[in-house]
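User: What would this chain look like folded?
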Amino acid sequence: MNPIELAGLLAAPTESPVRDALRRLAPRTLDALIIEALSATEEAWRRVVVDRVAAFAAGQPGDRSMVAAYFTTVERRTTEGMRVGWSPFVAALTSTEEVPDLRHTSTTATAVPIGEAAMAKEVFADPELAAALNRLAALDPPRHEDVLRVHLPTRQVTHLTP
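Assistant: Here's the prediction, encoded as structure tokens.
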């Protein structure tokens, strides 16, 4: 059983053996188990992000080896209101260790028809990557100016705050 499956069973313990086992645990032990499962789940989501970014980098033209990819934040409307999360699109892909300038700039916005925006998301977005970024944002919420760095040689995902 992988960490994601374990976390799913702990979040909704409907299977008889899991439910029965959890009922027998002391509250303090149960809390420790949940914390451990969540941290393992966060690591699993980080691995998904690294794998998807590595696949994206490998598909890029040219023979440069990519060192890091960066994601900026995006604000989304949810049922609870506006929420800051990670954009599912790579903001920068670099072949050096230097962090590029990812500050937001003032630009003129052009409205995109709804059909075209949906098509662009369908064509360019990676659903696995988007799901992993959403889960990481839920576990460690970013602020507007934060950046997520995916370092490919070390396979580390780092939440950077300016």
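The helical segments are 3-11, 16-24, 27-58, 114-124, 127-139. If you want, I can go into more detail on any region.
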